[in-house]
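ingest -> validate -> predict -> emit
validate: passed (alphabet ok, no gaps, 373 aa)
predict: started
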Amino acid sequence: MRIGIDARMIFMSGIGTYLRNLIEGLYRLGEDHEYIVFIQEKDRERFHPPGENFSLIFSGARPYSFSEQVGLARLVEAQNLDLVHHPHYAAPVFGRTPMIATIHDLIHQLFPEQCPSMLAWRVSRILAKRTAGRARLVLTVSEHSRRDIIEHLGVAPDKVRLTYNALPPGWGEEGQKKSFPGLKAGDPYFLYVGNHKKHKNIPLLLEAFAEVRRRVSGVRLVLTGSGDGLKGEMARLGLGDEVVFLGNVPHEALEGIYAAARGLVFPSSYEGFGYPPLEAMGCGTPAIVSDAASLPEVVGDGGIIVAEGRVKPLQEAMIRLFEDDSLRASLSLKARKQARKFSWRTLAGETLKAYRDALAHSHENTAASRGGA
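emit:
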């Protein structure tokens, strides 16, 4: 097979992690297929193909742009592919190359406030439906997202396949803990990893942590990203140096940060999957998550699940995890066991099967049309 993979988002969070793990997994499966990987021009020096059967095509089309609909579509058609895999809902609407798409979630479609404008929201709804309609198969990363796609995009259930996200090979193994700037070695802290969009509930997390700090001493809260937009909330809660913002952290540096944390705290109200809890659990770090969307599905018994949007259950869970060493040790073992369910081999294998099935479907349709002519 000659398969195209639209990897222009490979250095973004979420989808980028999915793409890197998928491409590495397809390479490690060792099957003799040819992969044409489309990346952005600006990433030319950052991404290197994992093997000789992976080649690169450079595109100037940015994700979610008009050029994506026109320029990328022409570029794909010029490669004489058997199949192309687009990893998001805004795939080019037109094109003759058989296509599958991974739709991770419907947050842009279900929550207009997540889009920069009402026009962007309407366009996202149109693109999601067109992408799902054009795709031979739609892949998604959780049962929760699968139900959303079937219900809100009107896709037939047998067309939507669950292919869980995965951890990369070797993630969380001993000897990979590293020190990092911002904290002294051994300082106990809770960790949040992700952006600071509204549905992530960062003000709620800060409020819960402020109460934790009043009841126990010596613990810190560490967050990726910048605290510039949270200064007012921090001042209101009387929080200072005990909250540390790490800025933009390279993904390869996250492993050690996860491994040294007392727990990951992730009180989001909507996730198609939620990579940070899985990454934390893979390092043996329990996750405290809300009972929203896909998060209970991912975390299982590898963490503590609390009521979404409520401060007290969140702070009580943090205090329990901080004070109860036996609970933390027990959850650490369960976290690693739960994380092992999300393997790169399964992700790559199920995706490769989807490629074959999509092509078989394409060939069946071609034979049927010829027979009826």
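The radius of gyration is 22 Å.
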